[in-house]
Amino acid sequence: MSDIESTTPAPDEATDIATQIVRAILAAPAHVKPLEVLKLVSEHREAMIPEFQGAIDDALQLSRQGLLQELGDWVLPGYATAFLAEWKVSGTHQRLLDILKMKDADREWLISDALTEDWPQLLAATFEGDLAPTTEVVLNKRLDEFARAMPVHAVGNLVHAGIVSREAGEAWFGMLFDKLERKESYCWAKLALVVADLKMVELLPKVKKAFERGFCDEYVGGPYADIELAAQGGNPWEEQGMVWRDEFQKPEVDATKMICRWPYYSAKRPDFGNHKVGEKKSPTVTPTKVGRNEPCPCGSGKKYKKCCGGAGG
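Above: the chain sequence. Below: its structure as tokens.
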């Protein structure tokens, strides 16, 4: 990176330095944490904001045209989501929701496991005060059940942080119990788990009814008795020497740490996520039926129930 100055550019140099940084991002080798590139991005925030917004908008447009996997790239949009969320740039929340509304195959190609690992935190960090766009995604029957569930977890983060009031959160979750389609899905299970995490005992009758009607998969969060006990402050896993769940994520993003956690930059998993721009890859998709005590398919090393099965993802 010696060919790129790391000082803040003068106004007339902004476009040039942004172009150089974009090239450096795309040229960064796999399985090596791109610390110098990430440092440059942080130092040239104002120059990079329009570049990152454009990267997401281009990906969305290519998806609409059915060309994303043929002509697009996932690295620059990945950087964009992380840094725009860290910087809390206006309009980022809607762009993230628009990614969730992509065709399933395109969304999986673009963000893969980041859907369950990063998206609740990204959405919470970029929230701009209006739950209506989030509601639209959660109630969209066309979308994948995991894409619809992550905004539910994000709102849980916001309620836990006090950004959305407990009263408003309880009303929103209650509305979802009333409006979600009447069939089993991960969205129902995530809703029940968030209610338990937030100890919203007032919503337990709705949770119980959802379990009785078979909408909540017990492989994800356990039986209703576990949800009820957790909502009341207990720990259904105490006898196993385990804590109930991880804490909610703060609605803040450290883009450098988030990007450095990508398996793409991990020498331990050299075969994961390593593809060139425009080259199709087979995304890792978490199956909907995984034993609660089995290792999580995302590769985190945690049990499924403590990760993408609801407890930590």
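The chain is about 50% helix and 0% strand.
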